[in-house]
Amino acid sequence: MSEGSGGGDGLPPSKSVMTVAEPGKNSRILNFEFVDDAQVPGGFKEYRGKGADFPEKFNRRKQAQKLADDPLALIKASKLDLQLRIDNINSALKNGDYAKAQKLINKSIQEYGYDPQLMLSKAAVEQHLGRLKIEKITPESATPIKNNFFDEINNRNFRRIETDTEFRYVQDSPSLSNLDTTKPITESVSSGSGFRLYKLQPGKVGAVPINQSGFGDVSASSHPSTQFQGTNIANSLKYRYRDYKSNNECNNQPDEEENQNPNCSLENLEKPVYVVTE
Predict the structure, then answer these.
(1) Dist. CA 121–CA 102, nearest whole Å
(2) Which one-letter DSSP state was computed for residue 199?
(3) For a surface tag, which of 105, 210, 255, 276 has the fewest beta carbons within 10 Å of its beta carbon?
(4) For the segment 29-51, what is each residue's pLDDT rounded down to a tens digit?
């Protein structure tokens, strides 16, 4: 670095890469160029400003060894990080900032996949955007709810269960821990139980349903948090998808004939989605 714009003692660098001028009258002009160790008498020295605290350079081997010594540390840190993300999402939803909530949800899904808590937060956003219809199910009818779905899931933890025929997002509560998974949820939740049952339905653009990935499809089935409680693991969507991909009959079938073979229909790779709360 040299000071000045040329002449006198302030000769500019021979190959200047940057010039910075201070504001004000009689200000300095600083010229910069890159140099190596051989050009610096005595080599480089590091100077830290008052109060400066530079973090230690990231050492991959050292960090990997830490994880090997305490493998639960990563799990604990991930859980804390996910919960912090969920808290920030809930705060945005509570304030009605759906754009911020959507951005936070999408980033969190990139990091943690289709976690059930993230997906229900996404359902609240998608309902607000008109991309998802949520119905309250009673023995008498299925009625679209008009209130904010976030109010139904706020301050509640959920687990996702896949049965032979459906997905259930069930509030984590002792009173909901023994629902019968051998029959449809509409028969498992009795009218006098006091539980609330909702069904997630995709919205439409005209007459075309909007695809809703992550709620009740292969990605939800494949997420490690999903508990399969059906009669046969082969009925889980992640196994159906594996069979679909390995089916040469489907792979060799023209696209226009796809729906003619029920075994090759992608519609078989989705299940109805329900939410149960106290």
Answers:
(1) 9
(2) E
(3) 255
(4) 666 666 666 666 666 565 555 44
